[in-house]
Design brief:
alpha+beta, about 35% helix, about 10% strand, 5 strands, three-stranded antiparallel β-sheet, 2 domains, binds zinc ion, 6 helices, elongated, His-Me_finger_sf
Length: about 160
Amino acid sequence: MRFVGFDEATLERFWSKVDRAGGPDACWPWKRTTHNGYGTARIRGRNYRAHRLALMASTAKFNPLPSDFACHHCDNPRCCNPTHLYWGDAKLNRADCMNRSRAAIPFGSQPPRNTKLTDEDVKNIKHRLKAGSSVSGLAREFGVVRSAIQRIKSGRGWQHIAA
Ligand SMILES: [Zn+2]
């Protein structure tokens, strides 16, 4: 994914939507729209996770892989303070990363695809369904069609994965 539009003006606009009043060590909550608790930044018609953008900007990593998870040390999903953020990977078993950061790649602007779900995804989805997450919300988040989530929910698919 090429992150276009990450210029000075965009950055400035981005940071103006982050509440940095608490000082350098405090959490910097995103002041605008959130999605599943995470700040959502809209840039040129695409939605991005705000904290992921903050980490991309602070580490100059503008083309992170989907497997690069933007994680919070502070477990505050709205927080965009780069010192509270770090790049993790799928091996990290933090709920913060595993459950939601997959959707830190652009979401909402593309039609659902029949993406292949990994065993780890399915485990997470089962867990989230149990916790009351909606089928359509999970479908959006994992970038799959709703029937894929429905199949997991009904137990017709992925039976070998324990919830
Ligand atoms: Zn924080």
